[in-house]
Every structure is written in C-alpha cells, then in structure tokens.
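Assess the record.
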Amino acid sequence: MFIYNLFTMENVKRIVLKKVVLIVISVLLISTTMKAQLPSAQEIAGKMKIGWNLGNMLEAVWVPRDNFAATTQTTIDSVKAAGFNTVRLPVAWFYHSDTITSIIDSAWLAHVKKTVDYCIKDSMYVIINAHWDKGWLENRVNAANKDIVNARQHAYWTQIANYFKDYNDHLLFAGSNEPNVDDATGMSILLSYHQTFVDAVRATGGNNSSRTLIVQGPSTNNEKTYTLMNTLPTDQISNRLMVEVHYYTPWQFCGLDKDADWGKMFYYWGSGYHSITDVNRNATWGEESEMDISLGLMKTKYVDKGIPVIIGEYGAFRKKLNPPSDQALHNASIEYFYRYFAKSATDMGFITYCWDTGGLFNFTTGKINDKVVVNAIIKGATDTIPVTNVSINEIVDSLAIGATISLTATVAPLDATYKAVTWRSIDPSVATVSSAGLVTGLKVGKTIIYANADLKNAMLSIVVGIPATGVTQAIKPDDIAIFPNPLNGKQLTVELGGLKGITTIQFIEINGHTVLEQTVFDKQRTQLDINLKPGIYMVRFSNNQNTLLRKLVIN
C-alpha cells in the first residue's frame, strides 16, 4: 500500500510538471505571436492621412554610386509640422547592389535606414519601395526576363525585409514603382513579381509575417488597374495588402514641359480657371468630373471591398509662361488642381502622396518653398465641411472706364471649414478686383469676376465701356428695402424712397435667368404678388439713371 502510494505520487508529479512545461511553452508561443502580429492594412490606412514623397534622392541613379544623396531630420520635421504624417521613400536597390549576386551594399542599406529613422522618430508612417532603378523590373515585365527579375526581386526583398525586420507597423514595403503593363499577359507576369515580393518578405518572419505590403497596379494607371488587376497575390495572412496607383492626368497640364506632336501643353485647368484670351491652352479633358470618375474606379474595385489604396504619386508642376499667356491664372489653376485632387481623393478614402523633388520643401533646411501648394494639399485633405454654394450678391452688367463697384459674396453653409472668399478677374487688363471685392474698370472690353471659396465659385460678367465723367464713385445700395425677407408667402412689400423714377423690378435666379419682371411708376411703396419657387433671387431695381440690387430668399 505504501509503495503504491509512492508510485502514484511520482506519476502525479510527472503529470503536473508536463502540464507546467506545456503551459510555459504555450505562453511563450502566444507572446511571440502577439509581438509579431502587426495591425491590419485597414487599421493602418485609417491612421495614414496625408503623404509626401522624398523624390530624386534615394532613387537617384544619375549620380555616382558612392555619392549618397541625403536629407535631414530638420526636413522631415518640417514636413511633419506642415501637416503630413506619412512619407514615401523611392529607393534604388539594383544600382547599389552586385549585378551578379544581387547582394545590396551594406553601406547603402545603412543610408536608407538613416532616412527611415528620421521619419520613425517623428511617428510618421514610411514606405520603402523598389523604384525605377534603370528599369530592372518595371521595363521588363515580359516572358523573356521573368525568371531573372523574379530572382532579383526575391534576393532584394529578402535582404531588405531582414534588415528592417524589427521595425513596427509604421514601416511598410512597396514591391515596385510603375510596372509597364498594357494587357492580360503582362498582368500575369506582374502578378508573379508581386507574389515573389510577398513570399520573400513573409519568409523572413518576425514583424514581417504581418507587415502591410503594397502592390502596384499595371502602369499604376487607374483604368488599366481597374480592367486588368482582378486578383492580388496570395498571402499567408489576411488583410495585410494595399494597392498603389499614381495620378498625373491630364499629362498636358500636370507634366508636359513642351508641346508634343500628340498634344500641346495645357496652362489652365478647372471650372472657373480657363482663360478667355489664351483659349488654346485651356484643358480640354481630364478636369474635375473625369478625375472623380477615374478615382471612383479604384474606390469601387478596392476601397469599397476593404482593400486600402494609396495614390503613391500625383502632382501638377508649374510652367514659366510668357505674355500673352497668363502666369497668375496658371498658378491659380495649379493651386486649384492640388486642392481639388486632395479633397476628392481623401473623400473617397485614399491615402495620397504628392510628388516632390525639392519644389515644395528644401531637402536640406526643411524650408517650405511653395506654401501655396502645400496649403492647398492640407486644406483639400482636411476639408471636413465643404462649401456647397457661393453667390455674388450684386448683379452688374456694365461698368464705365474709371468707375468702381463693390462686390460682396455669400457662402453656404455658414459653418464651412474654409469659407474665406478670394476674388479674381479673368482679364485684369480690362478690370481689376481687389481682395475686398472692389472692381475697377480700366479699358473697353469684357471680363469675368470670380468669387472663390473652398472649391466652389460664382462669376459675374462685366462689360467695361465709356469713360466715366466726374469723380469715380462706387455704386452703393440706396434706401430701397424689401420685406419680409425671407418671404414665406406671396406678397412682397417694396420701399422705393431712396431711388426715384423706378421703371422696372426684375427677379433673377442665381444662374442669371430673369423669371419675373414688373413695372412701377413713381411710388414710394408698392406691394407685389410673387409666385416663385423657393430659392435665392436677386432683385434688380433700374431706371435710365441707375441700377440697384437686393437679395431675396423665398422659403
């Protein structure tokens, strides 16, 4: 009995010890797994807001190999302070590796790491890619080069992933740049390059087992990607892939720097930004509605299905114009393009990265070189309550040379994020307009005055004619009053005490169409029966001496 009890106790000890060991091993395995489990692509995309490219630096293959182009912590700090929280680093690997063994120069890896660390220090999300780099991948998406490209892709990404294995979810990898693909055959080969990229990174383990990876659509073109890229690489972990496209449309406006056989440069882009004199340089395609349609393809195909999309590059670059082309109007078009694009893309759920090679930020000092464009991007991407309507409160058909008129504008809604109004004359040689809306006629001709707020505008066409006699004086509202305003019924009372000899009263919709006209004779007060649909109207009082305006709201 005593021996049996001893045997039983020994068995119990062994069983308990085995269970303790199993528990410890399980805890260690769980701890290790939890350490390597980075957030999903969707979670990371929700934190990545506005992006910027450090262009023509780490991917510069036109400089000596030992001349490592470098930026500074100060520059990255400046980018962060301006409102950007994610950086894309285009990198050349082929140029800094042995072309036979594909072993990357260790000094180059350390140099790339230094820039990555600048971004990580500022808690920014950073993307490392494999850029053009003499076209070793993107110009060789074909059957003849498939095997050697896949071998290099595997070698490079195995080294890169191992080197950065311990970095957290703030570091993302992008397998290529702009792979040249036009058809299904090319897409099949490109997919093999993407698969090699994903498999190589995952095989290194650690944080790379769940790191978010980015694959590029064919030519990073929205339309080609929508049509051709119908599958993504197979991944051992779900929800860790993003898709990348680029946007430089229309190229005649965004990037073309001289006229070509296939098309001429566009200087002016967008509603309210076309020239009425330099009309051959107005954009004829690729403006707001087409941009929205193109971006919408990526939203439908990926974002709406839970696959994040980055627009890894976009931009429209200033041209230096000569008279009679309008440099100021061109600059305004550039600003509008950035702001419209940033807003449209952000509203559709994309993370956008503006292309910069030093035009926006000085890469050494961090100084902002182009505050207009930087502010346009930030405002577009953070425009949470957009302006829905802008209307000019005055209606003026003509203005004498030397005469002035003060214009005002109404912006809706009242709580819009960016509702400050800016004024612009499409032809300032005919009439100028001040920042406060004061229009001055200069010479015979026609111009259009625009009131811009956020991405909306209102316009007023003015013909400047015969020089005014006497002292220049602004046309100001007189003692005319209309009430009730807003009008809830049909009877409107008009006080005419301040303007004698009134002959006509016109009710004009905000689109300029006259919907009602009545004539009155020498009355100080009159009551009018109004039967108009709800909306905002301008009421124009005129005789052969003067014209005055009032705004009327009908509920």
